Amino acid sequence: MDRPGAIERSLREAAPHEIFDVLRSVLEHRHHAEAVELLMVDYAMTKLQPVGILPHTRTPVSVYDSAPGRAFGAQEPHCVYDDAASTVTAHVPLSVRGDRLGVLSVTLRVGEDGLAKDVLEELQQCADGLAHEVVVAERDTDLFLQARRAERLTLAAEMQWQLLPGRSCTRPEYSLGAQLEPAYAIFGDSFDWSASADDLYLTVSNGMGEGIDAALLTNLAVNALRNARRAGLSLSDQAYLADQAIYGQYGGSRFTSTLLLRFHLPTGDVEIIDAGSPRVWRVRAGVVEAIELEAQIPLGMFEDTDYVPQHFTVEPGDRLLFISDGVYDALSPGGEKYSLRALAGSITSTRLLPAPQVPRAMLQELLGHRGSGPAADDSLVMCLDWHGRPAADRAG
């Protein structure tokens, strides 16, 4: 067991619920680690939850003001030295293609020279390998999904979180992040994405209703869109077939407000269908502006609705924000809509954050606007930072 590749093989060969135990054993044997802990970020992205057999786990730590939280937020290793004990705890981010899962924390005994660079690099490689195996293992064990829960999910929320592709992803052309609230009781809002060599598809959906009814409607809409997309159909045909699936099930009594987008990665050309309430804002050269679109009929409202795409272009450095009505229509105690003034301020105040951190930060600011009472609607924020394709790679 003398190379990270051998460690990754051991993880692949382990039972799904034992992959972390295998890695801990390897690190204890190879580096004489005094402690090894895996912390998974919770659904609200405010806490890092220890992985273990519930309820026998350590108390969660904050994402905002803890050493593991610093590694999670910066997506870089963060080392904390204890001179009295001659140890260092390396907190290493756990992520897969930009989807931030949590933190691996390893405590090692060190000498006067501190933690060697090659050891820290190996710990990061171990965390990367573990992250991939966690994603695969979640098909066969509930251990890591249970660890993410700071409280019990409603059944509607369980359905919605299982529907999502992740909460962030990165490629050279873009960086993307999204978040739903209330995280443990979400019901109608959802998002989806899929990328190929030259295209990125995004959808932002808001199924009408509450609880299970809204979750069932959104599940139907998202899977109908996926089915059409995976059949290689155009954006307008994806909308049409999803519209027919929803209308066929509900006869127009229920519908889903949806934004559908296709980004052409080599050029930044965007094809978009506005079929309902989610809105788009753009930040370009520091200027915040709403992108005005021709509103079309929500999916499932009428039979045989034709959807016509519109077009615009994104430029390197652009930030796009996709925001549900639960955000922009939220009222302050004084009755002022969030979209009137506070939304632009929130977009501006988060401009220096990377895209995966923006949705959580904006939803926190939304709480300050509407107060501490229960939300009238669920809320969704998706943020996309467009980097563009390097000129040498624009053959498409």
TrEMBL record:
Q: What is this protein called?
A: PP2C family protein-serine/threonine phosphatase
Q: Which UniProt keywords apply?
A: Hydrolase
Q: What is its EC number?
A: 3.1.3.16
List the Gene Ontology MF annotations in alphabetical order.
protein serine/threonine phosphatase activity
Bilayer-spanning residue ranges: none
Matches recorded under InterPro entries:
Bact_Sigma-Reg, PPM-type-like_dom_sf, PPM-type_phosphatase-like_dom
Q: Which residues form the PPM-type phosphatase domain?
A: 173-386
Q: Cross-referenced SUPFAM superfamilies, in alphabetical order?
A: PP2C-like
Q: Hey, what's the signal peptide range on this chain?
A: none
Superkingdom to which the source organism belongs: Bacteria
Spell out the Gene3D superfamilies in the cross-references.
Answer: PPM-type phosphatase domain
